[in-house]
Amino acid sequence: MSVPTLADLEPEEAQRQVIGMLDDLRRQAEHIQFHRPRLMLLARKYGLSHAEIAAVLAMSEPAVRQAVRRAKDSPGLESIE
Q1: What sections of 1-81 are H helices per DSSP?
Q2: C-alpha distances out from residue 16 to 9, 24, 27, Å
Q3: Which residues contact 61 (CB under 8 A, 6 or more apart)?
Q4: Is residue 31 a part of any domain in this protein?
Q5: What is the mean pLDDT of residues 46-72?
């Protein structure tokens, strides 16, 4: 038995499925945006360099430095240091 694809669905059902997938993507992006600074601070606390964090996250080192600096000033995150 094969799994149906969007092309197998009626247009209205395919549209609902795509909207659901986009909504899932939005929620995942919000989750990442919320947790990324915390995890960067934890990475620094446990000895990772800005360059190592940047490599893992596919970011520039200056962007990581700026994000870590902002995270340190965020309420609730100071306990991570």
Answers
A1: 11-45, 50-57, 61-72
A2: 10, 12, 17
A3: 50, 51, 54
A4: yes
A5: 96
Distance between CA atoms of 78 and 35, rounded to whole angstroms? Answer: 14
Q: Enumerate long-range contacts of 30-39, CB under 8 Å, 24 or more apart.
A: 36/67, 37/67, 37/68, 37/70, 37/71, 37/74, 37/77, 38/71, 38/77, 38/80
pTM: 0.68
The average confidence (pLDDT) of the chain is: 89
- Tell me whether residue 55 is in a domain: yes
Does 1 fall in a domain? no
Number of domains composing the chain: 1
In a domain, 35, yes or no: yes
Give the model confidence (pLDDT) of 28-53 as tens digits: 999 998 899 999 999 999 999 999 99
Q: What domain range is 52 assigned to? A: 6-80
Say what the pLDDT of residue 58 is.
Answer: 97
